[in-house]
Write a structure and sequence with these properties.
The protein has about 475 residues and is of the alpha/beta class. Helices cover about 35% and strands about 25% of the residues. It has 18 helices and 20 strands. A hairpin with a 2-residue loop joins strand 14 and strand 15. The chain is globular and about 70 Å long.
């Protein structure tokens, strides 16, 4: 039997409140969502923008919650359902529990941020470090004001490593989050014009990402992408207080990618780290994935783990849902490949996705088909940023283009007439045209910002076409 995550005494001390009644079961996890709550979880009733967790306390207990953390103003009524901890503010209480988790652990901690690729890099770190010891990592993209403290609160005391993702939309958001995490190593994947609508310039984005340096522990290490456009700015900010190592194509990088060769669902990679050459297989395709893998190995090294063991483990990494996951579907005339890049998009990640599509070989008679949704939060230059992708379509051998949204209309109109498949205002209206176009041998890549709702297009394709038998 595994040890409980939290004892009743530890919870009372961290939350600053005793339970209304003794807990009938040990706390095995922490939840803020009754849809995924497991028996033994501690449920935090968080007040969200559209819903109030207090309305789900009864459901949490019915699902097997050990106890619930609720606001003092609701505690008397909700204690009728089971043991509750009455606190001043449930989100602040979860932050206190997260701080207690960080204080009690001896784990080596790494935090990842960046405009593009941070979730994939976080997952690579999770896979790589798991070979060296018990590793706790953020679930999905839990990188904001509730995701970070929730991930901390879920961290077992026995963890050897902790991997955290930290995101932001506005300046000042990373500072309090990294102060909770207090990483020994920070990895910044790259800087791109993401959220530029809110921040105003690429330099301001870099400054906001640099906030992660403020929380790195004394004696810690910062891993930077030397090829990022704002590397010099980041290096200046980082080197004021911490050691800096870099990765990239630049000859001065501490970690350099020497060779990248796509191999089916993955890639063969050769790199040099501090003058030592290393070869490994990465379980996901894409040059951008391989580049970030080199940064990941530098972070592993800085954490004191075995780099060769970590590199070998990266064969087990696979692209995540919305971030390059692949499916083989049965269409007219045989199997075709669907690449799911639907989670988010900006000019940098869009070009990387088009390069990934270009590197994927269609079957006999197949074509490369791009289904692209609007890239959002690009500010006044958004429309031009879409039109500027026209050259990338030809450079990356796109045969057929489908576009969704008013901004993508600019790209659709700029594309060669023979390449244009269909344009739709909404993602719900594009799927039938893609159904009609897809056929055996094709490679269909779907990408767009989360707000452009391209995920449902992927779901529609997977629902309309059956999964092809293995090996077809």
């Amino acid at each position: 039997m595994t040890d409980p995550l939290w004892s009743e005494t530890e919870l009372a001390q961290a939350l600053g409140a005793p339970p209304s009644a003794p807990l009938s079961a040990a706390v095995a996890g922490v939840s803020i969502d009754t849809r995924t709550l497991a028996p033994g979880d501690l449920f935090f009733a968080i007040q969200g923008e559209t819903s109030d967790g207090h309305d789900y306390v009864a459901r949490a207990f019915a699902a097997g919650a050990s106890a619930c953390v609720v606001a003092q103003t609701r505690a008397r009524e909700l204690a009728a359902h089971g043991p509750v901890f009455a606190v001043d503010d449930t989100l602040r209480a979860m932050e206190r529990l997260g701080a207690a988790a960080r204080a009690r652990t001896h784990a080596r901690i790494v935090a990842v941020t960046g405009s593009v690729g941070k979730t994939s890099a976080k997952e690579m770190l999770r896979v790589a470090l798991a070979k060296a010891g018990p590793t706790h990592a953020s679930a999905a993209s839990y990188n904001n004001h509730w995701g970070v403290p929730l991930t901390l609160a879920r961290m077992p005391a026995s963890s050897a490593f902790g991997v955290f993702e930290i995101g932001m939309n506005h300046a000042g958001e990373i500072t309090p989050l990294v102060a909770m995490v207090r990483p020994h190593v920070a990895l910044v994947t790259t800087i791109a014009p993401v959220h530029i609508e809110y921040l105003g310039s690429i330099e301001a984005i870099a400054e906001a990402k640099a906030e992660i340096f403020t929380g790195v522990e004394l004696g810690g290490t910062i891993v930077l992408n030397r090829d990022a456009p704002q590397f010099a700015l980041l290096e200046r900010r980082a080197s004021l207080t911490r050691k800096v190592v870099s990765f990239g194509a630049d000859a001065r990088a501490d970690g350099r990618l020497l060779h990248f060769e796509p191999e089916g669902e993955g890639a063969a990679v050769r790199a040099v780290l501090h003058g030592r050459e290393i070869a490994f297989r990465l379980g996901a395709p894409g040059l951008h994935m391989a580049q970030n893998a080199v940064g990941v190995l530098l972070a592993v090294e800085a954490l004191g783990a075995d780099v060769a063991q970590a590199a070998a483990a990266l064969a087990e990494f696979s692209a995540q849902k919305g971030r390059g996951a692949r499916f083989t579907l049965h269409g007219p005339g045989g199997a075709f490949t669907l690449i799911d890049e639907s989670y988010n998009a900006n000019p940098v990640s869009m070009r990387a996705a088009l390069a990934l599509l270009s590197a994927t070989n269609p079957g006999a008679g197949g074509r490369r088909i791009a289904v692209l949704g609007d890239m959002l939060e690009l500010g006044a230059g958004g429309a031009q940023a879409h039109a500027d992708l026209a050259g990338d379509l030809a450079r990356h051998n796109v045969d057929l283009l489908f576009c969704v949204g008013p901004l993508m209309r600019r790209l659709f109109d700029a594309a060669p007439p023979a390449m244009r498949g269909f344009w739709a205002e909404r993602s719900a209206d594009i799927a039938p045209s893609v159904f009609d176009a897809a056929r055996g041998g094709d490679v269909v890549m779907v990408k767009g910002s989360l707000g452009s709702a391209m995920g449902p297009v992927v779901a529609a394709l997977r629902s309309h076409f059956s999964l092809a038998p293995a090996g077809e």
